[in-house]
Fold this protein.
Amino acid sequence: MNRIWERPNLISVVILVIILVIGAGYVLFTLQERPETESFTVDDDYFFPYNFDRLDRVVKLPGELEEISGLCQGFRADEVFAVQDEEGVMYRVNAVSGELLQRLTFGKDLDYEGITRKDNRFYVLEADGDIHTFDYAQDTTAEVVSNKLETSFSYRNDTEGICYDSITNTLLIVPKAQELNPQSDDETRRGIYTYDLVMNELNSQPTYFVDGLEVGQIIFGKNREYVIKPSGIAVEPSTGYLFVLSAVGNILIVIDRDSQVKHIELLEQNTFRQPEGITFGPNGELYISSEGRGGRGMIATLTRNAQTTSNNGQRGESDRGEN
């Protein structure tokens, strides 16, 4: 009688079954542990102006943007710029139709995770923390030459999110994995680092942070960490607050400049399979992109609601029927 290790096909089947059981168990555990409430406003004085129960629009993207990994504001209404994590190509996209309006090659095929701009200057973030930068004009052809800004980050940090902060004239960068200089007493914190565009240098210590333990206390109501691995970041124009996106946990966290949590939104997993890109439009629209994970990538649009005051002095949100 053959021993099990002499029957490789059977071994493969056993391993596959074990993997499936573990995966099914994890999914079941996640579903059981996900709280029923999906929206948490921590500060009663803060009005969260987006309603994730009523997305204005969700558009599917062409196949080449299945792994869309970064998003930034365009120059025209309803247009955004995007990158995906395999090719050195910037895409100009119509966020209403999902149509690709332009492809612009800027570099070699590497692992690109984020994109932002200051006026006509673009910055594309690589997973190792390098920043590829180039100028763009409306009549730019199919290719530009980019320069590389090196930082202290490396692939062990897995930098995924970048945005321009006009308040401080810096780039905000978030690592998904290890912190730049990990501290034993900050194991649940995820840092947000600033890159000074005047000095062309990265601050070695995080300027802002999101604390997974604090987020877990808000969501679960007990001393328990909610695992966060930031995948995108954007600055809300009207308040200057930071919107931090995490594909792990499907969560959006709003913090102020003191790193205090203002609002938490748990994103619907069937719609946002792997949310990694986030930006704001010229009229306050919120755009969030998600990788397809075997399907087509997408961009969701949320119109900014105006805060209203009722006759009794209580605040509420306006109706969206105007859009």
About this structure: The domain at 34-317 is CATH 2.120.10.30 (Neuraminidase). The chain has a mean pLDDT of 88. Residues 8-33 form the longest helix (26 residues).
